[in-house]
Amino acid sequence: MSPKYDSIGVNYNQTRKADSYLTEQLLKHLNPNKNGLYLDIGCGTGNYTDALQNKGFQFIGIDPSVEMLKKAESQNQKIKWKIGSAEKTDLPKNSVDGIIGTLTIHHWSNLARAFSELNYILRPNGKIVIFTSTPQQMKGYWLNHYFPKMLEDSMLQMPTLEAVEEAMNSSGLQITATETYNIKPDLKDQFLYCGKQNPKLYFDKSIRHGISSFSALANKDEIEKGLTELRKDIDCKKIKDIIKSYENDFGDYLYIIGENLKYKND
After folding, report:
1. SS3 content of the chain, % helix, strand, coil (to 5)
2. Which of 86, 136, 193, 229 has its CA 20 to 30 A from that of 151?
3. What residues pair up with 130 in beta bridges, in sequence order?
4. Sign of torsion over alpha carbons 20, 45, 167, 216
5. b/e for 97-113, b at 16 or more Cβ within 10 A?
6. Among 15-24, 79-88, 243-252, which is the least confidently predicted range?
7. pLDDT at 264
8. What is the mean pLDDT of residues 45-71?
9. What would be the CATH architecture of the domain defined by 2-137+155-194+250-260?
10. How far apart are the C-alpha atoms of 152 and 139, rounded to whole Å?
């Protein structure tokens, strides 16, 4: 994953900014203590790490991309930034009070090993908050109409909720809650489905560059064809019907909240 994100890391912060609503939701689910130490795993350029630290909470940021971490350090040198991955953090046992992971879980090479590692470094009764999407949710993206192969490949690398739960349970973590998230019109973090309500966003090369599905998975010919069709459908107003045909109740993304409960009865 590192070479891919070293490339994506160039100008990444131009379009991938911490969204204030998503930041508040992370805080709500993590419920951190200002005396605690927390980890942002797969932190990228550290936008959410920085946003949460600026609210008075102490964070460590870990990511496998050197380029991403250079950007992270340039915006906040008070945070400890480390090269690493969910499978290998190189942090001591029981060293963090909680963990967040935003739009990173689909890049983990081994879910079971990753959650085992995260549980190892998590203090008793610590929380883990994962922000992700599921294949079921992604099937409901109208992007499937224009970029079917790209979305198919994206869904193949996206773990199902069942797979996440199984991996968490096997590691000693337990899902205590889930909460769906639907794209808001004022979203500042321009990830894959950012253009749900504003399809014209996908014509911006910088936005596509900051989305791994477009920049690393997609076929150039499919992108060009899809954008041409999308432009035609916007011009003739057909896009409204396409979007409406994909309406569903699954939500666009998902918060998965887990807790280390193995010491509850000790």
Report:
1. 45, 20, 35
2. 86
3. 101, 256
4. positive
5. bbbbbbbbbbbbeebbb
6. 15-24
7. 54
8. 96
9. 3-Layer(aba) Sandwich (3.40)
10. 9
State which H helix or E strand residue 130 sits in: strand 122-132
Half-sphere exposure (Cβ direction) of 25: Cα atoms closer than 13 Å = 20
What end-to-end distance do the CA atoms of the chain give, in Å?
A: 39
Among left, alpha and beta (phi > 0; psi -120 to 50; other), residue 103 is left
Q: Is the pTM of this model over 0.90?
A: yes
Enumerate residues 6+ apart whose C-beta is below 8 A from 42: 62, 63, 85, 86, 101, 102, 103, 104, 105, 107, 108
How far apart CA 95 and CA 82 sit, in angstroms, is 15
How many residues belong to the chain? 266
Contact (Cβ atoms closer than 8 angstroms) between residue 45 and residue 68: yes
Neighbours of 206 (CB within 10 A): 11
**Rg, Å, the chain Cα set:** 18
- pLDDT for 242 equals 98
d(CA 122, CA 125): 8
- Distance, in Å, from the CA atom of 25 to the CA atom of 44, rounded to the nearest integer, reads 19
Closest CA to 131 of 84, 80, 183: 183
**Alpha-carbon span 117 to 128, nearest angstrom:** 12
| Spatial distance between the Cα atoms of 97 and 28, rounded to a whole number of angstroms | 15
CB 178 within 8 A of CB 161: yes
The structure tokens 């011009």 sit at 235
Q: What is residue 189's DSSP assignment? A: B
